[in-house]
Amino acid sequence: MAIEVRIPTILRQYTDGQKAVEGTGDTLAELFADLETRHAGIRARLIDADAGGELRRFVNVYLNDEDVRFLDGVNSKVADGDNVTILPAVAGGMA
């Protein structure tokens, strides 16, 4: 069994159009590194290397419907059967 990662439309160019992919790892950081081995470029869209390897500011990640920023961020533990959802933050308003 693996961890299911739901991919938003804007990042599907890295997953050959797939809406969901599977990966492995003990933490989100390890999971994202594993995804990078099969979907080159996706990790750089999620992780900010200049911010010590933390999530990019405008990327929201949910682990089993829990916002990982309120857990342990990229160090949040994951296990087989977990679901990870990646959502880009949306901003806008009236000009």
Automatic annotation (TrEMBL):
Transmembrane segments: none
Pfam families from the UniProt entry: ThiS
InterPro entries with a match to the protein in the record: Beta-grasp_dom_sf, Mopterin_synth/thiamin_S_b, Sulfur_Carrier/Prot_Modifier, ThiS/MoaD-like
Name of the featured protein: MoaD/ThiS family protein
